[in-house]
Amino acid sequence: MSGNVSRLVDLIRVVARRQPAAPAIEFEGGRIGYAELYDDALRLANGLREGSFAPGDAIGILAGNSPDYFTIYLACQLAGLVAVPINYRAVADDVAYVLGNCAARGVFVGEGYLDIVDAALPRLSAIERQNVIVVGSPRYRALTAASGADDLRRLDPLAPAAIFYTSGTTGFPKGAMMSHLNVLSRLVSWGWEFGLNAGDVVLVPGPVFHMSFSSIALVTLAAGGRVVLMRDFDAKAALDLMARFAVTWSFLVPKMTSMLIEALGEGGNRGAGRHLRGLLSSGSPLPQPLLEAIVQSFPQARITDAYGWTETGWVSLCHHEDLMRGRRSVGRAAFGCELGVLDREGRELAPGEVGEIYAAPPLSFLGYYGNPAASAAIRRGKWETGGDMGYLDAEGYLHLVDRKNDMIISGGENIYPAEIERVLLQHPKIFEVTVVGVPDEKWGESPRACVVLHSGENAAAEEIIGFCDGRLARYKRPRSVDFLEALPRNAMGKVLRRELRERYWQGQEARVR
Predict the structure, then answer these.
(1) How far apart, in whole angstroms, are the C-alpha atoms of residue 379 and residue 401?
(2) Which CATH number do you get for residue 460?
(3) 510 in a structural domain
(4) 169 within 8 A of 416, measured Cβ to Cβ
(5) Listed residue (433, 440, 439) closest to 419, CA to CA
(6) How many whole angstroms separate alpha carbon 258 and alpha carbon 268?
(7) For the whole model, what pTM was predicted?
(8) Which of 3, 145, 378, 453 is least buried, going by the fewest C-beta atoms within 10 A?
């Protein structure tokens, strides 16, 4: 395949030539223009090409938010490398697993994260020390000092561009591979859906290792808009940035939105929403009181609630008009996407019938790295599933009923109980444990450990939670513990996880997202 635009970075190259001096990223008082962003990425790409990396090599990115993150990501696309964003809240075991699983040849490391990589490095024989590249170091500067020749050699658009790791049902993450064309089609469809254009100023307040936040930034850059990037989210600072830069659009998880509303009530910048035309939310349901508060605080902003999963992206959108009518659904199929509800035999069900939710996106992801069995398990022909159960009504609106799998979504982060259980079972006092998601006013839901101790043992919740320090990323740690005499089981001895979960969710308005 050939053509001038087959990768996301090609769109940004076009923008950089069309409006070289236009601001691309605003960050902590500094500004980087489009020509500078693209040229920096091109020089870094050439430096990587001239070094020890070859097209198709995977390279990790463990760093906080900064313009450098996007320089690195775009450079990887230009050089034909496979970018592997890593959650900066990960511990050394997580980092070692991810980099080892994708056979990474190197890793970019942001300030403050080198100790984690150093602890993981002895387990990573494929990564030479010189290919641990600290952002801003002499090695990094040497790579970015390479010539700026615009070598646009054609790469297969269906070659891997990035691998995003999702939590795994077996306790180990799975690497979802995205092709160049997959990334491009997904972001173009979102740009079309939300009407993003060169006149938009988009606040990106969350971690860009997360595909949702990075995607919103990248689609803004591809459209020629301006990204206002925060290193870390702070509600009052976000309001000030919205007012200062006349922000027109943003994506936030519900907790961030709630904190913005609270900050406004505490005297935050009232001019923040003056130019705001759109807000996108995802990660957990928007409670009705929060939805009403958003409308009151930002009356001219159109709100969209999105539903989807990492592998397929946002598959359905509940737009402003439906939210205002109080429709309790996750909306209709997103642009270019089909929705279906299938039974166990793979047959499409009629409206109102509950089954497993599937989607057919514009272009499917490539599958999980090195895991064909898991790739096959989520697919049925053209369809892909995130594992949730629900139904389509007669008008094509998708309604969630329950999760087929056990995933917990806390503050927009996917957490699988098996990861936590695998760690807790190493505790000498614990006989058995099951982790379930329970309602949490701050995070939507949070992990709770249901623990059975060995006979004669005693423990406090603090001891159990504290045992996870250094063994699990902080956001994955259980926030509460129940001590039980026994776990509920069926006649075959299988733990009734859903029965445990049901104890905590009775009477809740929104049960899944």
Answers:
(1) 21
(2) 3.30.300.30
(3) no
(4) yes
(5) 433
(6) 13
(7) 0.84
(8) 3
